[in-house]
Design goal:
- Two copies of one chain form a homodimer.
- Chain A is mainly α and about 240 residues long.
- The first copy, chain A, has helices at about 5-45, 45-80, 80-115, 120-150, 150-180, 185-220, 225-235.
- The first copy, chain A, has a single domain (about 5-235), classed as Methane Monooxygenase Hydroxylase, Chain G, domain 1 (Up-down Bundle), CATH 1.20.58.
- Chain A is about 85% helix and about 0% strand.
- At the A-B interface, α2, α3, α5 and α6 of A face α2, α3, α5 and α6 of B.
Chain lengths: ~240, ~240
């Protein structure tokens, strides 16, 4: 293979890089919608909506496989360097996080079905809905940060994660109180502890996506270095 | 860069590929040990051991970052093709799964500390220990399958996952029974539901690793195609 690049080849290559970026965003919007609908189905005891979330999970899975395949093709045929290589690696990793979020949405939808026949206190559901909105918001913001290559925006998503963690703790405490009041609450409340744990993990995945965005833009791996270390790298010119 | 390969360059390249393989195995052994020790600490109320698991998590994180960096270097400098490219991609993905398992071990160690001051029924702990052995065994077998590029072994790990899922269901039911018997059991039992959920996810990560092994050897993405589809691809000559 020649390393000289004809204008046509270069345009085609640019198009391929743009295509994986766009497809990540499309996959991200679908996954975000899956979370919101799964939680809606749970809160409104809407079994049909829960089933449609489960049925649509194959779309997320298909995107996972096909974006990965396109990334492998680019690595094999284009031998990308520097920023292009980081884009491909970041896309491979972001897609893995999105797939896991989609998986979480499916699990919430299954919980929605198994819990649909029971009356449960409205205030727990309000808390769960508010936590889901936060987690879905973090995901949306992390994808916006990716779309605009905006490391400041990525960093502010990471900082929001403590809020979702605090909501997780609060709802756990709420659920434990219901269990203590009446043993008949135990079985559904345990199922809801798993739901809120999934939502908490969605916040973590959004943070992972932001770390990949910072890696992509700054060329520095900011995982496991703490918030201060991350902030320093984001602020570096 | 020239595409002709001198013997020296080739030996160096072979060494690099061998090195990332070896380092994945070392990281895998460490992570497996972390799970076993975290669960030991939980079962034996051994706060010191739990703390050492938490303190050693930085080693897992450091391996995560450095193996990833070596993979990026190989992609940038060696422009690997075919099987070599699949090896690098599989390693990037396996490392991400291992990092999450290590994260789970740390969470279990934290639960071990917060639960260390309370008496709890021995039979729940026996069930949890047995489930942890299964999950750690799946991880070990998935890494052996990677070491020997053995797709049959990888497939049999994937088939074991239903056992871990069944143990998860059983222990959940056991825990719910304890909660119903006495409200004073609720708080620790809820914490243990999160521990067994982490163990269940470790089984899932071991399955992911096996899927990456099959991709590496067969060049086919076997995610999301079900056990039958996977078996067919494994058996293809």
């Amino acid at each position: 293979m020649s390393h000289s690049i004809t204008p046509h080849t270069s345009r085609q290559y640019d198009w391929e890089l743009e295509d994986i970026r766009t497809r990540v965003l499309v996959m991200g919007r679908l996954v975000e919608q899956q979370i919101v609908e799964a939680v809606d189905a749970l809160v409104n005891k809407d079994v049909e909506k829960a089933k449609s979330v489960i049925n649509e999970d194959y779309e997320v899975d298909a995107m996972d496989v096909s974006i990965d395949e396109e990334c492998t093709q680019i690595l094999a045929c284009r031998q990308p360097a520097a920023g292009d290589l980081r884009l491909v690696i970041a896309v491979i990793k972001i897609v893995a996080d999105l797939e896991r979020i989609g998986d979480g949405a499916e699990r919430i939808a299954r919980a929605a079905i198994s819990l649909s026949d029971r009356e449960k206190p409205a205030n727990v559901f309000e808390s769960i809905k508010s936590m889901a909105n936060c987690a879905a918001g973090m995901l949306r913001d992390s994808l916006d940060a990716f779309a605009h290559m905006d490391t400041e925006a990525a960093f502010s998503v990471v900082m929001q994660d403590t809020q979702v963690d605090a909501q997780h703790e609060n709802i756990l405490r709420q659920l434990i109180t219901y269990m203590m009041e009446d043993p008949r609450n135990i079985s559904w409340a345990v199922e809801l502890t798993l739901v809120v744990r999934i939502l908490e993990r969605i916040g973590d995945h959004a943070c992972n996506i932001c770390e990949h965005v910072i890696y992509l833009v700054k060329g520095r791996d900011v995982r496991h270095i703490g918030l201060e270390g991350m902030e320093q790298i984001v602020r570096e010119k």
